[in-house]
Every structure is written in C-alpha cells, then in structure tokens.
User: What shape does this take?
Amino acid sequence: MAVRPIVKHPDPILRKVCETVDFTSDADKQCLVDLIDTINSMGRNALGISAPQIGYAKRAFVVRLGGKVALSVNPTVESMSTETEVMGEGCLSFPWLNGIKIARPCRIEGYQWTSQGKPLRFALEGMEARVFLHEFDHINGVTIDTHRRAGK
Assistant: This one.
C-alpha cells in the first residue's frame, strides 16, 4: 500500500498543467496505484483526489461515484451542459477554504482511459459531474482559490 501525503498550497505542482500518463512507465503505473490507495485510506468523505495532489504531475485522478472509487486517466471533456449549478466546494489541498461557491455545468460527457489503457466514454451529471470537474481542474493547474479570486 502506498498512501501519499496530500500536497498543500502553495506547492507549485498544483499550478502545473499535467503530462499525459504513459501506460508503459512503471512510475506512471505507480501513480495510479498510489491514487487509489490514498483515497481509500481517507474514508468515504473524500470525494476525489488528483495526481498533482499526491506529488505526480500526471493527468490522472480518482473520484468516488455512487460510493465506488473510479480512476480517470488522461480524461477529456468533450461537452458540457449550458445549465449550471452553484454549490460550495472544498479541497484537500486548501483545507482552510471550504464552501467556495463555484458554478459548474450540470452534465458533462467525454472520454477517459482505464488503468489498462482502454478508452472509456462517460456521461456524468449532478454531483458526479461536479466532483469530476473539480479534479479535472487540478490536472489542468486550476485550483479552488483560482475560482475564489475570479469570483466564480
């Protein structure tokens, strides 16, 4: 088991646009295992965690969807609904910020890859879409404080 500590702001890795996961790289494979081990160690209240939050600048994260942990590797979001919902969010890398109001699309669709490198289409809505987009922001170097500063 490889549980990693959570990287906190102002660590520069949180602002990096992450690199694609290479399925032939042992280090990248370890990142995927570490993501799952880390979120599983945190209990049911942890809804998601991204690779940069555990020290890897890679395009991967895990989210808890319907009580199950789902790994997302090299995801792309291809469509978002124009309908949005504003809700409060928190972030493990900014434990002192909680309830930051963020407008997010209610529905998203796109592609991601499994840990074995197989493509997988997804469609998410509601809280699942919100958690996915929060983690998707992380792998693009966008953090919850960016939303706060922008007044979103």
Q: What stands out?
A: Residues 48 and 152 are 21 Å apart (CA to CA). Helices lie at 26-41, 126-139, 144-150. The chain is about 25% helix and 35% strand.
